[in-house]
Amino acid sequence: MAPTHGAVRRARLPVAGRLRSSRMPVIEQLPIPSPSQVMLMALEPLVGLEVHVQLATDSKMFCGCSTQFGAQPNSNVCPTCLGLPGSLPVPNRRAVEYVIRTAAALGCTVAKRCRFARKNYFYPDLPKNFQVSQYDEPLSFDGHIDLNVNGDEVRIRIRRAHLEEDTGKNLHLASGSSLVEYNRCGIPLMEIVTEPDFTTAEQCREYLTQLRLILRAIGVSNANMEEGAMRAEPTVNLRDPETGEATPMVEIKNLNSIRSVYEAVRYEIERQRQAVAEGREDELFQQTRRWDEANGATALMRRKETSDDYMYFPEPDLVPLEPDPAWVEEIYASCPELPAARCDRFQEQYGLPEYDARVLTESREVADLFEATCERFEGAAKIVSNWVMGDVMSLLNEAEVAVADSPVTGEGLAELLALIEESVISGKIAKDVLAKMFETGKGAREIVEEEGLGQISDTGELEAIIDQVIADNPGPAEDFRGGKDKAIGFLIGQVMKATKGQANPGLVNEIMREKLG
Amino acid sequence: MPDVSREVVEHVAMLARLALTEDEIQRLQKELGRILEHADKLQAIDVEGVEATSHVIPMTNVFREDELGESLDVDEVVANAPDVADKFFRVPRIVED
Fold first, then answer.
1. Could you tell me where the beta strands, DSSP code E, fall in A186-328?
2. What is the sign, positive or negative, of the torsion defined by CA atoms of A398, A399, A404, A410?
3. From the CA atom positions of chain B, what is the Rg in Å?
4. Is the sign of the CA dihedral A163, A168, A172, A175 positive or negative?
5. Is the Cα torsion angle A31, A37, A41, A47 positive or negative in sign?
6. B21 domain-assigned
7. What is the pLDDT of residue A450?
8. What does the DSSP 8-state code read for residue A97?
């Protein structure tokens, strides 16, 4: 047996691997039936998702190094995450708390007692030659997410959510060597594994969308797939529901967006269906495939002839976890309303269209701002929704300010909207006032008063201006009198211009028609 | 206990990334067999109701707070590396297959 030199082979995490078989009905792998038999079979896809989530702690899982994204190579590294002899890991309490918080959101049970385990393999992304993970004693298990996909209610069971450490990053050079850096190595990673309950790619997409919203709502991760803070690996195979016969399991890797997961799962289900239907048995074997974004197809990475052998054993450097029941209870009790539930409530309570409710509840902060405004505003909730989704969001985006740090609070926005309701200012002026509120942090009324932006509703003052506009524009005035109703628009525009938009447009229209009548 | 099979020895050697000569393989088939025989004696003990011990000290829940500590200077990090390029560890090409 050759020692490792030259190429290093990668042996990585199976999706649930042996664990899966211990908790679900065993599906015997039977010979592929002949094409004629196949045509009679209504094959149903069995898709499972394993998702890795970087937890949003300041420091790493077992040491005090920073988790900052995009730091200089190997600058957030210490003896512990470098696996130097004599170093000892100490678990980050917040990382444990975040998994428990996730467990609460996913309806999981938290283990009364659990341990970390060493997962042994040789690969340069972990300098210790093992990953600290959890094996047969996950921190939490048995939860679910309910999805609504095209009107169908689907329950996806969560098998487990456990805690482990992230690995380093490799860069492959064209010159034939690889570069390794360990800033990511040791960042707390939560692994969430589902049962193979998905039957369509749409369900996978909706699951990941909801999971991401939940993780953000409970504040445990930014769940950004492009930055690698959330990574998904599907397993796909087909089963004959009558006989229980199933095709061999296929894992898909290299997916860095929800869309690519959707496309890869859709492709893979179809690939296996066709292989079965056309009797191409040689294409159906246990394997790992890579999603090829450019070609829109999955491609074979490696055949899996044997199950991976990670020689798991309890991590001797870490003592068992026994989460204090009072602590767990406190975390469960403080679990916020989840986005899907809030979205439903927004439609019922505020009468919002589904679109508005979905957009607003995509971010807890945005939804909070909406509700805080509604609490103090007597007008329609739809008006608040329009302002929050429109002007407020665009001002925040332009200034690159997080909603949580918005200088305009719900109270401030409610005050502004009340000024419109009371006809003190027009909607157009309100946009300018909002921009000034952002800039200065001042209240809407204060700005309107200071800058004299209140609408002119004094009929005497308006009449004088209107008389002047009619005198200055005899042509359009004559057109209107001659029956061209549209001509009044131009004249009203002139009044608005003369008053810098402060004239009450309804009143101007009324007076103008009287005078020209 | 009979000798351990050749396949098992080769598998265990692969997992530990050990290069074994033909003589070593044959010797280890015998030696591992004897080691397993000894382990079998332990297997015979009735441990019904006894919880597996991973730690001899009855201690749980050792945590640290989520606070930043010292990291090493980058030059120290790579000081013992056989090969370094731009503060990265340079290793033989990794095949991701």
1. 188-194, 230-239, 250-253, 287-292, 297-303, 313-314
2. negative
3. 23
4. negative
5. positive
6. yes
7. 82
8. H
CA A121 to chain centre: 32
Residue A390 backbone dihedrals phi, psi, to 5 degrees: -90, -95
Which two structure tokens, joined as six digits, stand for B89?
Answer: 């560890």
Decide: A49 and A68 in contact? Cβ < 8 Å: no
Total domains in the fold of chain B: 1
**pTM of this structure:** 0.78
Per-residue pLDDT tens digits for B45-97: 998 888 777 777 889 999 999 999 999 999 999 999 999 999 999 998 887 64
Does a structural domain hold residue B20?
Answer: yes
Residue at B88 is within a domain:
no
Ranking A6-20, A98-112, A288-302, A458-472 by mean pLDDT, the lowest is A6-20
With a CB cutoff of 8 Å and minimum separation 6, the contacts of A293 are A260
Q: Do residues A260 and A297 touch, judged by C-beta distance below 8 A?
A: no
Helix H or strand E segment including B91: strand B88-92
Interface-testing mutation among A88, A96, A178, with chain B (most B C-beta atoms within 10 A)? A178
Q: Does residue B28 lie in a domain region?
A: yes
pLDDT digit string (tens) for A377-418?
999 999 999 999 999 999 999 888 888 888 899 999 999 999
Residue type, A259: R
Under DSSP, the state recorded for A391 is: I
Residues of A in contact with B87 (CB under 8 A): 72-75, 181
CATH of domain A459-516: 1.10.10.410
| Cβ within 8 Å, pair A309-B11 | yes
**Contact at CB, A74 and B19, closer than 8 angstroms:** no
ipTM value, please give it.
0.88
- In angstroms, the CA A319 to CA B87 distance is 34
Q: Where are the domains of chain A?
A: 35-329, 337-450, 459-516
Q: How many residues does chain B have?
A: 97
Q: Which ranges in B1-97 belong to alpha helices (H)?
A: 6-15, 22-43, 74-77
Residues A503 and A500: their CA atoms lie apart, in Å, by 8
Using alpha carbons, select from A483, A484, A491 the residue that is nearest to residue A508: A491
CB contact (8 A) between residue B71 and residue A322: no
| CATH code of the domain in which B29 resides | 1.10.20
Count of residues making up chain A: 517
Residue B25 structural domain: 6-44
Q: What is the number of CB-based contacts under 8 A between chain A and chain B?
A: 161
Helices (H), A147-219: 201-217
